[in-house]
Amino acid sequence: MMEESAIMESSQQLFDGLSFTIIPNAISEEEQAKLTKDITASGGIVIPFDASHGRIDKLNEISYIISTTSDFPDYHRALDLFKHVVKPSWVSACLQTSKVKNPRVYSPDPALFMNEVVVCCGDLPEGDKEAIEGGVLAMGGQYATQLTKFVTHLIALSMDDPRCQLALSKRLRLQIVLPHWFDDCLRIGRRLSERPYTLPDPEVLNTQAGAIPPTRTSNDIREATTPDPRDLPITATQRSGQPRAIRAFSGKKIMLSEDLSLSSRLKDVIISLIHAGGGTITHNVDEAHMYVCNYRDGPDYIKASQARKDVGNLSWLYWMITHDTWTNPMRRMMHYPRPRGGIPGFDKYKISISSYTGDARVYLENLVRASGAEFTKTFKQDNTHLITAHKQSEKCEAAEEWNVHVVNHLWLEESYAKCKEQTLTDSRYVYFPSRTNLGEILGQTEIDRDAVEKAYFSKAQARKDARGTPLVANNKRKQVVQDAATPVASRHADDKENETPGTTGSRGAKDRALSRLHEAAPDIAKFEKEMKRKGGVIHGGRREKDLEVVDKSKKAKGRDSVASKRSIDEVDGEDDQSDASTDEPALKSKRAKKDKMTPIKYRMLISKDDRWLNNPEKESKDKARLRELGLFITEDYKKVDLLCAPTVVRTKKFVAALACGPTVVASSYLDFALVNNKLPPPEKHLLRNHDFETQHGFRLDEALERAKQNQKRLLRDWTIFCTEGVTGGYETFKEIIVANGGQCHLWKGRATKVSAYKRTINTSDKDVSQNQEEDEGDGLYLISEAKKSELPLWTKFRELAQKHDMIPRIVTTEWILFVAMAQYVHWDEKWELKEEMVKGK
């Protein structure tokens, strides 16, 4: 009884101090109740989600968001604030192991297509195992060295493998597949069906398997096959004939564009549905929350897009009516307004389709037309491309004879998503996994936010549209926005600030992308290394160009890509282009002078200044004003001239940026600039905090001088290990170490192939070596915490250090924070962790 009580007491501390909210989409009320009970019983706090308006209140106060999908309004904002978004299975996994699991593995991010996959390898060559481990970790999955009940996929070459026999004897619920499955998933960049690869009789090895079976319609294209639906959904009205209330419209102002060309009857029905759902119709785009239009052009489209309003088409509106919930209009290709005239270059293509049926075929036909190409039902010799789900068809045979490009649908989807034709030299677009119908992954590509902004509503694009309207009208020509030269994107960096290491807080979208890329770097490097060797991961049969798959994984991690906010200075070089259509030289000259962007004088990173908290519109305007003065607000801590904060803080951004040796100024610098509309001398607003310096034992001005000497090389040749459970997160300290030239690796207590060797002090580099005098080169550092769960990791780490004849130093996070902020290597026994510190806790 006492033992059971002790276990309960331990589990109650698992979520201590953490707050949660549950997005109800696709989670039953019973499951929501169970999640709430489990979280609160383990010390967590559940903040109710207000389904009436579909947004998360007090997002800054929430640590974890539980959702089955990334398709909810606050998803990208949550990532910007570095909030963890996890699937419901994360909670049960944490409770089963009595450990807070890595949220990345349970992320609903569609880019991490291996999440919730736990792979174990049978009797494969060691190199193949390492390649599989690196790849699965990079794609959000987990790798297990031993066969356990948590393993979902056992990779083996035959059922004679001892682990396959063990799995059968223990009746483990897992899938036993050939290595080909993993290889094909990485090459395509999507999770494929295991069916053709499943042992004991995998279809991929059966040369007489017959026709490839058709696949069911992908859920990703349901109610999203056309950008221009003709009829309202049947579910739009109740049985009484009255309009049904749609929660997605509650409290929202919706603007319907004139380019929808709605009949008066249909328009009246749509308006009645919006009103029934608690929404209102507006004719002012500035007031609107949602803007519905057909095409990606016109001042209202540009203004709504730049203001980060929900911009979608009629198909998107109908989807919300059908499903009674909000969805991201960029989530599905046919929910976002079309480019008038299509994708540049596609107008010269004639495209046909093979092996797609039903809704899948309708979706691809409409996507071909929306891209600007000509769709042909009949495949002829003058076709330029054939899009097919597999290569077992007469059309594919004919295409080979006629030298017509045979591609999978990813080429079309990603060209449309990125607003630019994708090159066919990318092997993913011409690869067809054996015995697989690629229709199963149709519609999983999302619209690329950055690419759309760059092409259609960047600041330079808006200016060209505004100028062109009266001139085109005078010439009686129809205005076509996409005919303007495609500008470089301008995106205001509205990312918020992360908290001090040790708490869960906010971070910029760019930071998030960098963090994910750094996190996966060791796995990607391992994968790249193994793929280069002869044989690859398929027992001796090397497949060419596999490295391109790794490039895809890097792009997916920065999918911030999906949510990243690009900097406003990227319009430099485009803004000074004059309007060639004007006939008035004087006006042309004035415009060119006015449009010329002020050169960047300072790049500033801001930390812990909350002047723009929950006010993105003011933030956007203020940053634009500052940019006009020559001050560019950046989230990139690797290139900083000015570091601004209300006081000296120990956030990840602040600490990492110190490696640049910037001038550190107080928030009063921004106050002065915004009030007086000019940049003051930085030296008049230097940040001082004598209490901080006394408490931590170094002077900030001296630290900055050392940073200039070090030139981001203070930890060059250092390999530092860090556990997953440190407060503040492994990624935070990894980025701080990398910012100072070092390497950081996650330590899980397992044998590692990472070299641990004594450092040779480079006395020839006097600038850096003078700040490394206390380093004797033989210390091997592990950043950890005084917790019982960490103790087994310490024992294994000491074994690693002894193996390489080094001194193991297991330290608190205070050690690396001091080194990075003071900018010199220093050791104090107060930072060392020992077993006696944990006893009794």
TrEMBL record:
A single Gene Ontology CC term:
Cul8-RING ubiquitin ligase complex
Whose protein is this, by species?
A: Westerdykella ornata
Pfam (any one):
PTCB-BRCT
Name assigned to this protein: BRCT domain-containing protein
- Where in the numbering of this chain does the BRCT domain appear? 10-108, 108-199, 346-418
Residues making up the signal peptide according to the UniProt record: none
> What SUPFAM superfamilies does this protein map onto?
BRCT domain
Q: Which GO terms describe its biological process?
A: DNA double-strand break attachment to nuclear envelope; double-strand break repair
PROSITE patterns for the chain: BRCT
Q: Where is the composition biased (Acidic residues)?
A: 570-582
Query: Which residue ranges are recorded for the region named Disordered?
Result: 203-233, 463-595
Q: Where is the composition biased (Basic and acidic residues)?
A: 219-231, 508-533, 541-569
